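Entry 12.
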Amino acid sequence: MSEHHATGDERFKNEIVSISTAEPGWQVKVRHVEHTVEPRQRTIVEEHTFPIVAWALVASQYADGGSTRNVEPVFYDGVSLVNSMEYRRMHSEIDVEPGGTKTVISIDLERS
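Predicted 3D structure (tokens):
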């Protein structure tokens, strides 16, 4: 019998509970970082700065039954409005073959 591994979409479910506009001047710096095991290395492959347009209270439910509520920035990524957890889900590559490269997303808040 094969073992089922949850995909990124199945690992967590996010719901925006409430949202409020952000004060002008806030932004996020987003980095797409590749991690390799052999040789052990981290490389920033993309870096963007996006304006924060709102703050969202996000309820997250995880495949293991856990749940959290966090305030997250909502920003315009050049295509659509997205909160930080959803951006990470869309752009991370967390299921990689042994010896492969894993892409993780780093998001930092900044005041301009």
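Annotation: Confidence is low (pLDDT under 50) at residues 1-8. Helices lie at 8-11, 84-91.
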